Amino acid sequence: MNNRRKLIVALGAGALVAPLSSFAQQKAVKIPRLGILSSEGASDLLERGRVEALRGGLRELGYEDGKTIVITSRFADGRYDLLAGLAADLVAIKVDVIVPFGIKAAVEARRATSTIPIVLPSTQSDMVAMGLAASLARPGGNVTGSSLFGAEIVSKRLELMKEALPRISRVGILVNPANPSSKSTMQEPNTAAKSLKVSTHQFEVRSESELNAAFLNMGQQRMDAMMILDDTLFSNRPDVIANLALKRRLPAAGNRLFGEAGGLLGYGVDALAMYRRAAIFVDKILKGAGAAELPIERATKFELVVNMRTAKALGIKIPQSILVRADRVIE
């Protein structure tokens, strides 16, 4: 074979190999898998909002479920004993990132894996104190995400309630004992209560079916007002809790959604915006960043909602000092 013919054969073989090689590379492209783990139910209003916020954030970054990413969800429907198994299931199917909805889900996800990155979109818990991260700046493990000023927020709600109703002295607080951070979160509000000359009394609720009994108990113990300690159980039922508080004629304070749903005061962050932002953490991790090196963000924008409809129904006159600071007043 002369040199010219050898060259033609070589070029032809190269032209054949190149497309085959390119096809093999395309075929080998791995579609990332994202696992959602929730302690509550898929049909719950807030959980649906959280899922859509996360999906919306991913879409903005170019991800399309079923094409460029596969999203697999596991919901415990309030059966917290199922969380460990659901977390293990996500690990078994080898998801690339786990996004837990709430601290209970985050704790079980971390128990299930120390290698798969975990992005916690929003929590009032102290992730460092709970051992989920070494520090906010350098988490050091496989957990990152965003954190609220949980204890500070509860203290602020108590201050706002006292400012709105100076005569209150006994405040009931709804607590889900299944939340591992409840005890530590209450330490600072208890200190604030003393300076405000208010006594706080915790009422434990583990499921929606226990809410009626908790409110009945508050009435029997003559609570002047009530507050809600942030938890997925309560955040998914703001209208139910607001209606029970109004029925018992109890001024109540909770997160922003609670104020919008009929609670007297709502103070907190836009949680759905934080779930949308969680997509940025997911994107960075899928592009090679390590959770250990992604700083945990802390919320900086807080909103105050005053529900004047509820105030009028309870015969309460909200001070102007609160109204001028409100981000939203519901008439």
Structural summary, described in words:
This protein has 331 residues and is of the alpha/beta class. The protein has two domains: 145 residues, Response regulator (Rossmann fold); 148 residues, 3-Layer(aba) Sandwich (Rossmann fold). The protein is built from 14 helices and 13 strands. A seven-stranded mixed sheet has the order 7-6-8-9-10-12-13, with helices on both faces. It has a three-stranded parallel sheet with strand order 2-1-3, with helices on both faces. Strands 4-5-11 form a three-stranded parallel sheet, with helices on both faces. α2 crosses α12 and α3 crosses α4. About 5% of the residues have low confidence.
Q: Could you say which structural class the secondary elements and strand pairing correspond to?
A: alpha/beta
Q: What CATH architecture of the largest domain would you give? A: 3-Layer(aba) Sandwich
- The tally of structural domains comes to 2
Instruction: Give the low-confidence spans.
Output: 6-13, 20-26
Oligomer: single chain
Taken in chain order, the helices and strands follow as HEHEHEHEEHEHHEHEHHEHEHEEHHE
What is the C-alpha radius of gyration, as a whole number of Å?
A: 25 Å
Mean pLDDT: 90
Examine the coordinates and then state which fold CATH places here, giving the name of the CATH topology of the largest domain.
Rossmann fold
Number of strands: 13
The proportion of residues forming helix, as a percent range, comes to: 40-55%
CATH superfamily of the largest domain: Response regulator
Spatial gap, N to C terminus: 92 Å
As laid out across the biggest beta sheet, the strand order is 7-6-8-9-10-12-13
Q: Shape from CA axes?
A: elongated
